[in-house]
Amino acid sequence: MDRLHSSDDILTKLNILDHICQTRGIVAELAILGGSGILLYMENIGQSFRPTQDIDVNLINTNDIQKLTEALSEAGIDLIGGISEVPPLEDYTNIDFLYEINAEFDNLRIFVPDIELLACFKIFSSREKDLIDLKETDILKQCNKEKLIGLVDEYKQYILKLDNPDLNLHQLFHILKEKGI
């Protein structure tokens, strides 16, 4: 799979999806999550982020879920609804907490959650690559610390195995301190 190095790479794939949706009469609102969401967010504020391998989205709204699922698959975009314990689905599909990507789509509205929500996906993960992102990129520096800590405290109650030693959450305060945040 080709790596996505910039917002333009992501928007190119989303334009393919938009064209498929247009030809099939599909209208949809999607939230971009994961590395692609962070890449879009960071480039929007003039910062860089590492390349990513895929585009992960969650559905906010559509007129035809079955056709949209097929279109996403054809465009090589992953629908990931319900994979993570936190943040809760309603936090990253509520348009009031998202910013809309300013792009010329006909049948799509594309949103990205704020950086604190995107950071929480990495904080509550146990994947090494997410820990590396927290340590080696500016994701946490872009966060409002009070908002981030508030979300972390709120989301802890949703974690089934909070005692998992591999959970990146357990290193958060050390990383914040190392970064001078």
Automatic annotation (TrEMBL):
Concerning Pfam families, the annotation shows: DUF6036 (PF19502)
Report what the protein is called: DUF6036 domain-containing protein
Q: Where is the DUF6036 domain?
A: 29-161
InterPro entries tied to this protein? DUF6036
Tell me which domain of life the UniProt entry assigns to the organism this sequence originates from.
Bacteria
